[in-house]
Here is the input.
Amino acid sequence: MAQKPKRTKSGSAWMHEHVTDPYVKKAQQDGYRSRAAYKLLEIDKRDHLLRPGMTVVDLGAAPGSWCQVAVQKMKQQGRVLAIDLLPMAPIPGVDSLEGDFTEPAALAWLEEKLRSGRVDLVLSDMAPNISGVMLSDQARQYELCELALDFSVNWLKPDGVFLVKVFQGVGFEDFRARMRQAFEQVLIRKPEASRDRSAEVYLLGRRPVAARVAADETAVTSRQESD
Ligand SMILES: C[S@@+](CC[C@H](N)C(=O)[O-])C[C@H]1O[C@@H](n2cnc3c(N)ncnc32)[C@H](O)[C@@H]1O
Here is the structure.
Protein backbone atom coordinates (compact mmCIF):
# COMPACT_ATOMS: atom_id res chain seq x y z
CA MET A 1 0.00 0.00 0.00
CA ALA A 2 1.30 3.46 -0.86
CA GLN A 3 2.44 5.39 2.19
CA LYS A 4 0.80 8.70 2.98
CA PRO A 5 3.33 11.50 2.47
CA LYS A 6 4.61 12.88 5.78
CA ARG A 7 3.18 16.31 6.54
CA THR A 8 5.82 18.80 7.58
CA LYS A 9 4.92 21.54 10.04
CA SER A 10 5.41 24.27 7.44
CA GLY A 11 3.46 22.21 4.86
CA SER A 12 0.48 21.92 7.24
CA ALA A 13 0.69 25.63 8.03
CA TRP A 14 0.64 26.43 4.30
CA MET A 15 -2.36 24.10 3.78
CA HIS A 16 -4.21 25.69 6.72
CA GLU A 17 -3.55 29.17 5.34
CA HIS A 18 -4.57 28.05 1.84
CA VAL A 19 -7.93 26.52 2.84
CA THR A 20 -8.85 29.42 5.11
CA ASP A 21 -7.67 32.18 2.73
CA PRO A 22 -10.71 34.23 1.67
CA TYR A 23 -9.16 34.94 -1.75
CA VAL A 24 -8.74 31.22 -2.45
CA LYS A 25 -12.44 30.65 -1.68
CA LYS A 26 -13.47 33.69 -3.69
CA ALA A 27 -11.40 32.56 -6.69
CA GLN A 28 -13.17 29.20 -6.63
CA GLN A 29 -16.57 30.92 -6.49
CA ASP A 30 -15.73 33.46 -9.20
CA GLY A 31 -14.19 30.89 -11.55
CA TYR A 32 -10.64 32.25 -11.46
CA ARG A 33 -7.78 29.81 -11.74
CA SER A 34 -5.89 31.34 -8.83
CA ARG A 35 -6.15 33.92 -6.06
CA ALA A 36 -3.61 36.02 -8.00
CA ALA A 37 -6.57 37.31 -10.05
CA TYR A 38 -7.49 39.68 -7.20
CA LYS A 39 -4.05 41.30 -7.22
CA LEU A 40 -4.50 42.37 -10.83
CA LEU A 41 -8.16 43.28 -10.32
CA GLU A 42 -7.21 45.53 -7.41
CA ILE A 43 -4.35 47.22 -9.24
CA ASP A 44 -6.53 47.65 -12.32
CA LYS A 45 -9.32 49.21 -10.23
CA ARG A 46 -6.92 51.86 -8.99
CA ASP A 47 -4.70 52.36 -12.02
CA HIS A 48 -7.03 51.57 -14.97
CA LEU A 49 -4.61 49.35 -16.85
CA LEU A 50 -6.96 47.28 -19.00
CA ARG A 51 -9.20 48.55 -21.80
CA PRO A 52 -10.86 46.92 -24.82
CA GLY A 53 -8.68 46.74 -27.92
CA MET A 54 -5.32 46.50 -26.19
CA THR A 55 -2.37 44.23 -26.94
CA VAL A 56 -1.27 42.67 -23.65
CA VAL A 57 1.75 40.44 -22.98
CA ASP A 58 1.51 38.28 -19.84
CA LEU A 59 4.86 36.83 -18.71
CA GLY A 60 4.68 33.99 -16.18
CA ALA A 61 1.00 33.51 -16.95
CA ALA A 62 0.12 30.03 -15.60
CA PRO A 63 -2.30 28.89 -14.35
CA GLY A 64 -3.94 31.85 -16.13
CA SER A 65 -5.93 34.02 -13.75
CA TRP A 66 -4.34 37.27 -14.97
CA CYS A 67 -5.17 36.22 -18.54
CA GLN A 68 -8.77 35.60 -17.45
CA VAL A 69 -8.95 39.09 -15.90
CA ALA A 70 -7.35 40.70 -18.98
CA VAL A 71 -9.79 39.02 -21.40
CA GLN A 72 -12.78 40.01 -19.23
CA LYS A 73 -11.71 43.62 -18.79
CA MET A 74 -10.93 43.93 -22.49
CA LYS A 75 -14.39 42.56 -23.26
CA GLN A 76 -12.89 40.02 -25.63
CA GLN A 77 -11.56 42.85 -27.84
CA GLY A 78 -7.80 42.92 -28.30
CA ARG A 79 -5.17 40.26 -27.82
CA VAL A 80 -3.32 38.60 -24.99
CA LEU A 81 -0.02 36.83 -25.58
CA ALA A 82 0.98 34.64 -22.65
CA ILE A 83 4.14 32.70 -21.79
CA ASP A 84 4.90 30.29 -18.99
CA LEU A 85 7.30 27.46 -18.30
CA LEU A 86 4.27 25.43 -17.27
CA PRO A 87 1.45 24.24 -19.49
CA MET A 88 -1.70 26.32 -19.30
CA ALA A 89 -5.21 25.18 -20.21
CA PRO A 90 -6.48 27.28 -23.15
CA ILE A 91 -8.44 30.50 -22.57
CA PRO A 92 -10.44 31.94 -25.49
CA GLY A 93 -8.77 35.16 -26.65
CA VAL A 94 -5.34 34.18 -25.28
CA ASP A 95 -2.48 32.98 -27.45
CA SER A 96 -0.11 31.08 -25.19
CA LEU A 97 3.32 29.50 -25.36
CA GLU A 98 4.71 26.90 -22.98
CA GLY A 99 8.28 28.14 -22.86
CA ASP A 100 11.07 29.77 -20.91
CA PHE A 101 11.08 33.54 -21.24
CA THR A 102 14.86 33.57 -20.65
CA GLU A 103 15.35 31.51 -23.85
CA PRO A 104 15.64 33.19 -27.29
CA ALA A 105 12.83 30.98 -28.63
CA ALA A 106 10.28 32.66 -26.34
CA LEU A 107 11.32 36.13 -27.46
CA ALA A 108 11.25 34.99 -31.09
CA TRP A 109 7.69 33.70 -30.59
CA LEU A 110 6.59 37.05 -29.17
CA GLU A 111 8.35 39.02 -31.91
CA GLU A 112 6.68 36.89 -34.57
CA LYS A 113 3.25 37.45 -32.98
CA LEU A 114 3.88 41.18 -32.61
CA ARG A 115 4.95 41.84 -36.17
CA SER A 116 1.81 43.87 -36.65
CA GLY A 117 2.44 46.30 -33.82
CA ARG A 118 3.59 47.35 -30.41
CA VAL A 119 2.31 46.48 -26.95
CA ASP A 120 0.00 48.50 -24.66
CA LEU A 121 0.63 46.57 -21.46
CA VAL A 122 3.31 44.13 -20.29
CA LEU A 123 2.44 42.13 -17.18
CA SER A 124 5.11 40.11 -15.42
CA ASP A 125 4.10 37.98 -12.46
CA MET A 126 7.06 35.65 -13.09
CA ALA A 127 8.67 34.10 -10.06
CA PRO A 128 11.33 31.38 -10.08
CA ASN A 129 10.96 28.22 -8.01
CA ILE A 130 12.20 29.07 -4.55
CA SER A 131 15.38 27.19 -3.56
CA GLY A 132 15.38 28.56 -0.02
CA VAL A 133 18.75 30.27 -0.50
CA MET A 134 17.54 33.83 -0.22
CA LEU A 135 20.34 35.61 -2.06
CA SER A 136 20.25 33.32 -5.07
CA ASP A 137 16.43 33.34 -5.14
CA GLN A 138 16.48 37.15 -5.17
CA ALA A 139 19.14 37.19 -7.89
CA ARG A 140 17.07 34.84 -10.09
CA GLN A 141 13.95 36.95 -9.51
CA TYR A 142 15.74 40.11 -10.62
CA GLU A 143 17.16 38.38 -13.71
CA LEU A 144 13.57 37.71 -14.76
CA CYS A 145 12.54 41.28 -13.92
CA GLU A 146 15.44 42.73 -15.94
CA LEU A 147 14.51 40.63 -18.97
CA ALA A 148 10.87 41.66 -18.69
CA LEU A 149 11.97 45.31 -18.40
CA ASP A 150 14.21 45.01 -21.49
CA PHE A 151 11.30 43.52 -23.41
CA SER A 152 8.99 46.33 -22.26
CA VAL A 153 11.46 49.05 -23.21
CA ASN A 154 11.75 47.57 -26.71
CA TRP A 155 8.10 46.82 -27.36
CA LEU A 156 5.83 49.19 -25.44
CA LYS A 157 3.97 52.02 -27.14
CA PRO A 158 4.82 55.58 -25.98
CA ASP A 159 1.84 55.50 -23.58
CA GLY A 160 2.47 51.87 -22.63
CA VAL A 161 2.52 50.39 -19.13
CA PHE A 162 4.69 47.74 -17.45
CA LEU A 163 3.55 45.97 -14.27
CA VAL A 164 6.15 43.70 -12.66
CA LYS A 165 6.31 41.61 -9.53
CA VAL A 166 9.42 42.22 -7.42
CA PHE A 167 10.53 41.26 -3.94
CA GLN A 168 11.73 43.87 -1.49
CA GLY A 169 15.26 43.19 -0.29
CA VAL A 170 18.59 42.82 -2.05
CA GLY A 171 18.34 44.16 -5.61
CA PHE A 172 15.10 46.08 -5.11
CA GLU A 173 16.53 49.60 -5.07
CA ASP A 174 18.80 48.93 -8.06
CA PHE A 175 15.88 47.60 -10.07
CA ARG A 176 13.64 50.49 -9.04
CA ALA A 177 16.38 52.90 -10.17
CA ARG A 178 16.46 51.16 -13.58
CA MET A 179 12.68 51.44 -13.79
CA ARG A 180 12.92 55.16 -13.04
CA GLN A 181 15.39 55.61 -15.89
CA ALA A 182 13.16 53.67 -18.26
CA PHE A 183 9.75 55.21 -17.39
CA GLU A 184 8.49 58.73 -16.81
CA GLN A 185 6.47 57.50 -13.83
CA VAL A 186 7.13 54.55 -11.49
CA LEU A 187 4.64 53.61 -8.78
CA ILE A 188 4.73 50.91 -6.15
CA ARG A 189 1.69 48.75 -5.43
CA LYS A 190 1.00 46.21 -2.69
CA PRO A 191 -2.51 44.86 -3.32
CA GLU A 192 -4.43 43.51 -0.34
CA ALA A 193 -4.55 40.10 -1.99
CA SER A 194 -0.74 39.99 -1.72
CA ARG A 195 -0.03 38.35 1.62
CA ASP A 196 1.31 40.73 4.29
CA ARG A 197 4.17 38.43 5.25
CA SER A 198 5.34 38.27 1.62
CA ALA A 199 8.06 40.68 0.50
CA GLU A 200 6.24 40.77 -2.85
CA VAL A 201 5.26 44.16 -4.27
CA TYR A 202 4.51 45.35 -7.80
CA LEU A 203 6.20 48.17 -9.67
CA LEU A 204 4.14 49.99 -12.24
CA GLY A 205 6.00 51.90 -14.94
CA ARG A 206 4.12 54.31 -17.18
CA ARG A 207 5.24 56.04 -20.38
CA PRO A 208 8.52 54.41 -21.48
CA VAL A 209 11.11 57.13 -22.11
CA ALA A 210 12.73 55.46 -25.16
CA ALA A 211 9.42 54.96 -26.99
CA ARG A 212 8.38 58.55 -26.29
CA VAL A 213 11.69 59.96 -27.56
CA ALA A 214 11.37 57.81 -30.71
CA ALA A 215 7.78 58.98 -31.25
CA ASP A 216 8.82 62.65 -30.82
CA GLU A 217 11.66 62.22 -33.33
CA THR A 218 9.29 60.64 -35.84
CA ALA A 219 6.85 63.55 -35.38
CA VAL A 220 9.63 66.14 -35.93
CA THR A 221 10.88 64.34 -39.07
CA SER A 222 7.41 64.11 -40.60
CA ARG A 223 6.76 67.80 -39.79
CA GLN A 224 10.07 68.75 -41.47
CA GLU A 225 9.21 66.63 -44.51
CA SER A 226 5.81 68.28 -44.91
CA ASP A 227 7.28 71.84 -44.52
C1 LIG B 1 2.93 33.50 -9.43
S1 LIG B 1 2.87 32.47 -10.83
C2 LIG B 1 1.89 33.44 -11.96
C3 LIG B 1 0.42 33.43 -11.66
C4 LIG B 1 -0.36 34.09 -12.79
N1 LIG B 1 -0.17 35.53 -12.82
C5 LIG B 1 -1.86 33.84 -12.65
O1 LIG B 1 -2.57 34.80 -12.39
O2 LIG B 1 -2.30 32.72 -12.82
C6 LIG B 1 4.49 32.68 -11.47
C7 LIG B 1 4.74 31.94 -12.77
O3 LIG B 1 6.02 32.34 -13.32
C8 LIG B 1 6.43 31.27 -14.13
N2 LIG B 1 7.83 31.43 -14.53
C9 LIG B 1 8.92 31.43 -13.72
N3 LIG B 1 10.04 31.53 -14.45
C10 LIG B 1 9.66 31.63 -15.75
C11 LIG B 1 10.37 31.74 -16.98
N4 LIG B 1 11.69 31.78 -17.01
N5 LIG B 1 9.67 31.80 -18.13
C12 LIG B 1 8.31 31.74 -18.11
N6 LIG B 1 7.58 31.61 -16.97
C13 LIG B 1 8.24 31.56 -15.80
C14 LIG B 1 6.16 30.05 -13.25
O4 LIG B 1 6.14 28.86 -14.00
C15 LIG B 1 4.82 30.42 -12.62
O5 LIG B 1 3.75 29.81 -13.30
Remarks:
- The first strand starts at residue 54 and ends at 59.
- Strands lie at 54-59, 78-84, 94-98, 119-124, 156-167, 183-189, 200-208.
- Residues 134-155 form the longest helix (22 residues).
